[in-house]
Amino acid sequence: YDGTGSGSAIDARAVSGAQIEDLTLLASSLLWSGRMVDFRINVTATAFVTVRNCYIGSASNTLATMIDLNGAQDLTIQDCHIDGGLYGIHGKTINADQSNALAIQGCVFHRQTTAHIHNPGQAWRISSCVFEGTIASGAGAVISDSGIRSEALLIEGCWSGDVSGGVVYQIDGESTTIQNNWIGATAGIGVSTPNACTGLIVTGNKFVGCTDAIRTVQPSGSSSALNWLIFGNTYQSVTNKLTGALTTGVIYHDGA
Prior knowledge:
By secondary structure, the protein is mainly β. The protein is built from no helices and 29 strands.
């Protein structure tokens, strides 16, 4: 694809019941700022779609989004290699947007500019994925912007590494489970919350090389219960297992 504007290579808005399989989609222009695969809502939502066994990427690290899921629902992305965009997969743009019941399974992410997976919505399941470094070799596996909240997000069985600095998983939302992942971030942060993320479970993960494995944040003056459960994780070459106040509703069983 050699577009230079803000258009989409594949415009699949409002599609229902489609499959995209066994394709290589490669953007060549540094000037392109559109979307490689566009599943955004267009009057009606995109739904019941599967993307499987595809390479979706850019040879030139463009400012484009590889897959846009804003407004999509009931969609699966499986066994794909997603490489070299501004975002690998983008969910919500503002908090009021919908992007629901999505599964991202067995995918490899590499060389995005900002985040591999950006702003997940409701009931996203991210499993068995590989997150290499961003274009600047930083982290950025799953990043929620402050105030754009996910709900019932599950991240499990993923590997993230070969990075220096940044945040691997930055979560803003409710009812998040991060379990059984290998989380490597030399001089970086494993799990961070920019706001009062509530209902967070972090268990069974191995943190390697992080300055802060888990960083808690609660807004000044807030007394709301975070309802966090942190237990059963292991740590290697980590400076701080947990930073931030152990405030109301945080149960921590991983030791000092």
